[in-house]
Amino acid sequence: MINIVIGLDVHKRSVYATVMENNGDIIIQRNMENNIEMVNEFLSDYRDHDIVIESSTSGKYLCKELLKLNYKIHLINPSKVPEIYNNYKKTDREDSFQLADVFRKGGMKGIYIPSGEIENIRSLVRYRHSLGEEITLKKNKVHALLTSYGIIIKATDPFGKKGLREIENNYSNLNYSDRIVLRSLLSDISYIKDREREIETEISSRADNSNDIKLLMTIPGINFYTAAGILSEIGTINRFDNKLKFASYSGLIPSEHSSGEKVVKGHITKHAPSILRFFLVETVHSLIKYTKKFRSKYLSIVRRLGKKRSIIAIARILAETIYSMLKNNVKFVDQERKKMANPDELYFKRLEELSLKKISNMRRIANNGNVQGDSANLIYRGGIKDC
Q1: Which pTM was predicted?
Q2: From CA 196, how far away is CA 199, in angstroms rounded?
Q3: Which of 4, 127, 196, 276 could form a disulfide with 49 if both were Cys (CB 3.0 to 4.6 A apart)?
Q4: Does an H or E element contain 256, and which?
Q5: What torsion do the CA atoms of 247, 251, 253, 256 make, to the nearest 10 degrees?
Q6: What tens digit of pLDDT does each residue of 257-300 get?
Q7: Regarding predicted confidence, which is higher, 270 or 225?
């Protein structure tokens, strides 16, 4: 059988296909409507051959539909392929040709295509994350508005019941227009909080079916929302050969510029999805407070690197720890008991209790809804902070 590669340049309304033999000869090129039935009819004679698609929004949709029909799909990131990304000749015909031609020469590798369940969790987590950013923006506007009138809210949580009563008592100090703006902002915050709870309820329901998410929840500072976010961006840990490659994917390794014997290392690459790096860095702030292992590592390098760079360094160690946990299917261990001269059994018991508490909290929210609204910010009440 002649080896054939098909390059598909996918747009919202059209698909341009180039069918190419392994020696570079073009069999056929055709422009067609972006319709799964029409595309399937065209590709039906090439079911056993490689099909290459760009990772655009339209491309991802077509990729999913063709995977359901058991085609051999390779989704690629064109920005990683100079022949496509830097090509001065940008036409549908040329792009589909380059997709097929570069792939047959071995000049590109397909990116990971997550399963349907991982895709669902990823979509929910990313939307929940965007709601968090939106609510922070609204709260900052409320603070700015009150500050412009010299109003200071003394409540610990300005947007809790006590804080809202203080704000209400100061309405009369605002002019008519700013009262309307303030009421609108507070109404928006309340509405977004309700959406957050709905999304977290759905995430918790899906997270309860994942053993990997429960493993990640044994790490202090990681609850079901954070665990679901990390896992949804990873997909499957088996696609990484070792912990260094996973750390690289996380964007937490320094960039390197080498010339001859001179090696210069710069800032971290930030190649990963930014939300994955966000979750890892946020978790570190809890780890360096509540775990002995990570706190001691942080203190050993903070004087040399400073606080910000030290946090990033610990985030990389966390990424490597997560890799080992998922790869070997083991829970988080702060320090090996066997290596400790006087192991604090109470400390380890509290770690385990915290993990069980988070799983119980996740299941409560899955069954009853997130009525308290604190699932994404689990508070340590006496837990292990004194250890």
Answers
A1: 0.83
A2: 5
A3: 4
A4: strand 254-259
A5: 130
A6: 555 565 555 566 666 688 999 999 999 998 998 888 899 899 99
A7: 225
38-45 — which CB contacts under 8 Å span 24+ positions?
39/8, 39/15, 39/66, 40/66, 40/69, 42/17, 43/6, 43/17, 43/71
Please report, as a single letter, which amino acid is at residue 184: S
Q: What is the pLDDT of residues 237-254, one digit of tens each?
A: 999 999 999 988 888 887
Calpha distance 347→351 (Å, rounded):
6
Cβ atoms 272, 252 nearer than 8 A: yes
Between β-strands 72-76 and 50-54, what pairing exists: parallel, antiparallel or unpaired?
parallel
DSSP state of 23: T
Distance (Å, whole) CA 55 – CA 77: 6
Q: Is 36 exposed, middle or buried (0-12, 13-18, 19+ CB in 10 A)?
A: middle
CA distance 146 to 57: 42
Q: How far is CA 311 from CA 282, 300, 328, 387, in A?
A: 9, 12, 26, 20
What's the rounded Cα separation, in Å, for the pair 280 and 285? 9
Backbone torsions φ then ψ of 115, nearest 5 degrees: -70, 170
Q: Which two tokens stand for residue 359?
A: 């799983």
